[in-house]
């Protein structure tokens, strides 16, 4: 089943129960006449399909939101780890410079370099050289003190950044927890949707399949890309990415999965391009915002087509007005018409 063309809001459990009741009240195949179902049957099937599509659409939005939150938290954890290492190195330099400056000052105060210079001025054969060395010693000491103060300022700045990063990480982890909780609620709804599908009678299942087939044919006619005949071929890294994605056909959609046995929509595209030697952002929204955008008319195999106004679905264009993508829970990686969902735009990795 293709993802619906609009994000219908989730229905309440009562509405879903009503749909289940509606399904139960539909005529049983054993009593149905061998003719086309009446209009009420068609309407009921359409409503059931719209309800299911709406649930799966909401699920994908929740999935991408969770994936995005998880990616941001993971990136922040790496940044915090790096800052903490920087802070430790800076503190080490500050301590070393402080000790060195103190030792130099004590040496001069006790008559080290300066006392030696005084003797050279009185008895030595090269008083000019002695004065020059004394000046250099004082300059070196001043430079050492200046460097030490600079490092103290640097330590203070790194410490500030580390504290800010730790605070940001706490906020991101909280957001991730909220998204995970929302995703959990959606999973419950999806379980209900799957129960509805499992409870459909054979005739109703055939009707749903027929509706999907009709929508597929309509989507083919809506494609406006430049290679409708499939003449454009992938090359280089794009060809490798397409080959990898095509090799995943038949593997199940699993939320948050990036292979090798299952994928979600952006998990498939990001893993395919990483396998081609060109890593790209993990989520569909990050791919939309972070990759080079190209016109729909210039789409070529390997490009990513981003769907819906909130950029919550993505498929890889393979030419001929088709994409390979991971559709939704309960389905597997498959080929579909590129125009089977509302297109937001096209992005090109490596451009």
Would you mind describing this structure in some detail?
This protein has 351 residues and is of the alpha+beta class. Helix content is 62%, strand content 8%. It contains eight helices and six strands; from the N terminus they run ααααααααββββββ. It has helices at 13-25, 39-109, 113-123, 127-198, 202-222, 236-247, 265-275, 284-290, and strands spanning 292-294, 304-307, 313-319, 322-325, 334-337, 343-348. Strands 1-6-2-3-4-5 form a six-stranded antiparallel beta sheet. β3 and β4 (322-325) form a beta hairpin. The longest helix has 72 residues, at 127-198. It is elongated and about 95 Å long. The relative contact order is 0.13. The model is unreliable at 1-43 and 113-124 (pLDDT under 50).
